[in-house]
Design a protein that fits this description.
The complex is a heterodimer of chains A (201) and B (248). Chain A is mostly helical. Chain A contains ten helices and no strands. Chain A is globular, with a radius of gyration of 17 Å. Classes of the chains: A mainly alpha (201), B alpha+beta (248).
Chain lengths: 201, 248
């Protein structure tokens, strides 16, 4: 699996390399590989389909313009795209003076964490085998976390909250929140090893 | 702070969950600490995989085409297309590298101002990149327009794939008040077709983008001086003429 992840990462890198050389087809292929996950991420944060579409169009536009600056030694294409998309999605939510969807859910006391939507992910017409496998692995890894650990990571990742804001949101001590985030992410890092390609190598 | 305490910030940093001050301090530390940089990178990868935790949604069908359409209007910054204008590519790379490096590692107090500057730089670069891309395409033909080998002169680039004509004028004094220059495309045996009007700056230079009617394949181009607003057909003998070469 690790070698498969590395192979995918290499193929991604080759696409970004071609984008830097002005090859529009490479952008199309990058979208075919990552458009689904990136759109899902944007939608999970902004909550509105039209807004998610804006975010994804802007994010791929930014990836296209800045492909030349992509440095494989600093991380994978997946992480690069996720960072761009997350930043743009959270900026849009803030610019609209709204709360990210994850926060709204948390405020409603909805216990639906990260793991629940994943359980129903199979319903989406998503044919990418690799993506399905990645979703399963991520779902499995998240399921191994405690519910409070999942919750703080969700609030940070999908809600864009700082540790202090999460503490306030959950009315928990800051130290507790910090420990949960760290422990949860450490655990994910361990269990997601098969999906983590070795960046830069 | 001990090394251990710094390292603990790598996780929240990778999730963008540090408050501004803490983040600034940590970024200053990151600039000097390879261990923490590696930690941040490792957790960025973990964080990147969390895209797969979002409820699966299917993008709207038109989104792919929209992204490609947008991309056709804007070339990648510093695109490796050829040696022309290397200073532009170098400047673009430098500006962006500084911008990106700064945003990434440095204090973000001035982030808003920086972003504004970056956006306006980006817009300028985008338009410069578009111009460069328009004249670098393999379908580009050129015409050198001159009178008798003396100034003034013009070089005109015609991107056949996009029907774009880029005009570069040299040592051409600005047209008198109430007058303008007009560029014509001429197919032998037919009436000249106007490609549009332009004027030069006081230094005698101009770089202007005009449109070529789709499907039109002229043999020659010529420039006349016309009343402001241009004329339907030339009212004067052209003072610059040249034939189209290459790019077929």
């Amino acid at each position: 699996m690790a070698s498969q992840a590395n192979g995918l990462a290499l193929a991604d890198r080759a696409l970004v390399e071609r984008m830097a050389g002005c090859d529009e087809r490479a952008l199309g292929e990058l979208y075919d590989r990552h458009g689904g996950p990136v759109y899902s991420l944007a939608l999970a944060i902004v909550g509105e389909r039209a807004d998610a579409e804006e975010v994804v169009a802007d994010s791929f536009g930014q990836a296209w313009r800045t492909a030349e600056q992509f440095d494989p030694a600093r991380g994978s294409v997946t992480a690069w795209l996720a960072t761009i998309t997350r930043t743009r999605a959270l900026d849009l939510v803030r610019a609209r003076g709204r709360r990210a969807r994850a926060l709204t859910r948390a405020a409603l006391g909805n216990s639906e964490g990260l793991a629940t939507p994943i359980a129903s992910a199979g319903e989406a017409p998503d044919r990418g085998v690799e993506r399905q496998e990645a979703r399963r692995q991520v779902a499995r890894s998240l399921a191994e976390l405690s519910e409070p650990q999942r919750r703080v990571i969700e609030l940070a990742y999908f809600g864009g909250l700082t540790q202090a804001e999460i503490a306030a949101e959950l009315q928990e001590p800051l130290g507790t929140v910090k420990t949960r985030i760290r422990a949860g992410m450490e655990k994910l890092r361990g269990s997601l090893v098969p999906l983590l390609s070795r960046g830069g190598s | 702070m001990t090394d251990h305490q710094w390292q603990e910030l790598a996780v929240p940093y990778a999730l963008s969950a540090l408050a501004q001050e803490e983040r600034a301090e940590f970024e200053a530390h990151l600039a000097e600490c390879a261990t923490c940089r590696a930690e941040v990178q490792a957790f960025r990868e973990v964080s990147g995989l969390l895209v797969h935790a979002a409820p699966a949604a299917v993008p709207p069908p038109g989104l792919r085409e929209r992204i490609l359409r947008d991309a056709r209007r804007v070339r990648p910054i510093g695109a490796r297309r050829g040696p022309i204008l290397p200073w532009l590519a170098a400047a673009a790379a430098l500006v962006l590298a500084l911008g990106a490096g700064y945003a990434y590692w440095s204090v973000r107090v001035a982030q808003t101002a920086l972003l504004t500057a970056l956006n306006s730089t980006r817009a300028r670069l985008d338009s410069a990149s578009q111009l460069v891309a328009a004249i670098l395409d393999s379908t580009v033909g050129t015409a050198d327009l001159a009178a008798t080998g003396k100034p003034p002169s013009m070089r005109v680039f015609w991107n056949r794939a996009r029907n774009v004509v880029v005009v570069a004028a040299f040592e051409l004094p600005p047209a008198p008040t109430g007058r303008t220059y007009q560029l014509w495309a001429i197919k032998k045996g037919q009436a000249p077709v106007s490609l549009g009007t332009f004027n030069t700056l006081p230094g005698g230079r101009a770089v202007v983008t005009l449109r070529m009617p789709a499907g039109f394949k002229p043999d020659l181009s010529a420039v006349t001086e016309e009343p402001a607003g241009g004329s339907r057909q030339p009212t004067q003998q052209p003072f610059l003429v040249g034939s189209w070469q290459g790019g077929g």
